[in-house]
């Protein structure tokens, strides 16, 4: 899993099985991207640790 800041884009990309680069581009285009990112960073659950 990718986690450069809080893992929001990487988590969304993993959930929908798409590229995290595409999700990051969508966040750049959205006008309220900072607000949405903060909300998601605080509400998304951490992924389970794998061995």
Provide a descriptive summary of the structure in words.
- By secondary structure, the chain is an all-alpha fold.
- The protein is 59% helix and 0% strand.
- The chain contains 3 helices and no strands.
- The chain has helices spanning 8-16, 20-29, 33-43.
- Helix 1 packs across helix 2 (20-29).
- The protein is globular, with a radius of gyration of 11 Å.
> Which of globular, elongated, flat, extended, rod-shaped describes the shape?
globular
- How many strands, what sense, and barrel or not for the largest sheet? none
Number of strands: 0
- Radius of gyration over alpha carbons? 11 Å
Strand content: under 5%
Number of continuous helical runs: 3
Low-confidence stretches: none
Question: What is the CA-CA span between the terminal residues?
Answer: 13 Å
Percent of residues in helices = 55-70%
Class by helix and strand content? mainly alpha
User: Can you give the mean pLDDT?
Assistant: 78
Summarize the helix and strand pattern as letters.
HHH
What would a concise description of this structure say?
The chain has 51 residues and is mostly helical. It is built from 3 helices and no strands.
Task: Kindly list the characteristics that best describe this protein.
single chain; 51 residues; mainly alpha; 3 helices; 59% helix; 0% strand; globular
List the helices and strands and how they pair.
Blueprint: H1 8-16, H2 20-29, H3 33-43
